[in-house]
Amino acid sequence: MRRQLLLCALAACAGGSRAAYNPASPASTTVASTGSYGGGYGGGGYVERAPTPAPMPEPVPDRPGLGTSWGEQLHAPIRYTPFTRASSSPWAEVALHYNDAEGVEAHAAYLGARPAPLEVYTTDGALGIALVDEAGRELPGVHAGDKTLVIGEDGERYKIVVRNGTDARFEIVASVDGLDVVDGKPADPNRRGYLVEAHGVLVIDGFRTSDAEVAAFRFGKVSDSYAAQTAGDRNVGVVGLAIFAERGAVWSRGELGRRDTADPFPSRGYATPPR
């Protein structure tokens, strides 16, 4: 089992309003065309031919829906603490797909459901996960088949909130649009994550830029998203969490449920021949 240092969020405060910082777009290269000269003379003078104009590139259409942009800097200090995973595989995984109201409501209407404030739970209900607005209100959404769809609004700031209802600690490796929220690289569960304490609440405000600050999560156009400007927009529109339990036996809600429903006289049948 791997022993590692985890990030513990100490605060998640908006602070004063600051100017938004947007990473520069990839530099474009301009190719200059030089004039070509004719091979003969016209009217006693040397004739210069106009350069052949380069074909105009086809415009790249913007993808519909929302992505997550690199927002303003927020004060969100962390500290480091040891944590040993119980297994190299996540104890649970959660994905929240987000989009604008038009996209989510159309999908919800097709399934006969209506969006409402939404919190998603791990299989045994031990942890609750939600996207919330700047004021801490859960964003509306709907369970659509095997997916969870959350409604965002262009320009709106949001946070990822994890509520722990157990006596155990958990490590949360989070991604937004396929990028790790700690280092902005393509996400991988093997990277370090945040720690949510027993009966605690973890708030992830943005992409971490230092031990003390993050760049806020803000909904925006796909072309303006942090992912589109760095790794590509293939995975825009999803928030993922890989949840790891700590090594050692813990009294989780699932374990307490098994104790509570233990049967002193389980039903039995007759002996069956060996295979």
Q: What composes the largest sheet?
A: 8 strands, mixed
Series of H and E elements: EEEEEEHEEEEEEEEEEEEEH
Q: In percent, how much strand structure appears in the residues? A: 35-45%
The SS-based structural class is mainly beta
In oligomeric terms, what are we looking at? single chain
Mean pLDDT: 78
**SS element count, helices:** 2
Gyration radius (Cα, Å) is 26 Å
Q: Name the shape in a single word.
A: globular
* Helical fraction: under 10%
Question: What is the domain total for the residues?
Answer: 1
Say how many strands there are: 19
Outline the low-pLDDT stretches: 1-5, 10-48
Distance between the termini: 37 Å
Describe the secondary-structure layout:
Blueprint: E1 3-9, E2 36-42, E3 45-49, E4 66-75, E5 78-84, E6 92-99, H1 101-110, E7 116-117, E8 120-121, E9 127-133, E10 140-144, E11 147-151, E12 157-164, E13 170-176, E14 179-180, E15 194-196, E16 201-204, E17 206-208, E18 213-221, E19 238-245, H2 253-260
Parallel strand pairs: 6-11
Antiparallel strand pairs: 1-5, 2-3, 4-18, 6-19, 7-10, 8-9, 9-12, 10-11, 12-16, 12-18, 13-14, 13-15, 13-19, 17-18
